Amino acid sequence: MTCRSGFFIRNQYMKLVAEISMYPLREKYIEPIQEFIERLNTYKSLKVVTTGTSTTISGEYLPTMQLLAEEMQRSHQKVGQAIFVCKFLNGDKMSTEI
Question: Which residue has the higher pLDDT, 7 or 61?
């Protein structure tokens, strides 16, 4: 099976682990960050762990990427400018569970 971009996709589960930090470019920056994290926590398909500097999200690869894209877009629409710093890992190859 191939997706629209032409990359091969297997018909099996693949886990994604993403670490994300949001930096709204406005004076009152805490509320948009809290709202973003709260929205991520509403998805039952995601495991969300928040620390003081970042949030780690894990779930099935493609649906998780889609949810992150939608929520980042929603934040940009609401806040205006915001920087998202993201790290993406193949969760299947991790030695510890997130």
Answer: 61
Per the structure, how many domains does the chain have?
Answer: 1
Domain that holds residue 48: 26-91
Q: Is 3's pLDDT higher than 70?
A: no
pLDDT tens digits, one per residue of 65-74: 999 999 999 9
- 10 versus 68: the higher-pLDDT residue is 68
Instruction: Please list, in sequence order, all residues whose beta carbon lies within 8 angstroms of the beta carbon of residue 98, skipping any fewer than 6 positions away.
Output: 17, 47, 49, 56, 58, 91
Residues in the chain: 98
> What angle in degrees, to the nearest 10, is found between the helix axes of 61-79 and 30-40?
150
- The edge-to-edge listing of strands for the beta sheet with 82-90 is 47-50, 55-60, 15-24, 82-90
The pLDDT value given to residue 8? 54
Would 18 be classed as within a structural domain? no
Does residue 6 sit within a domain? no
Q: Beta strands 82-90 and 55-60: pairing type?
A: unpaired
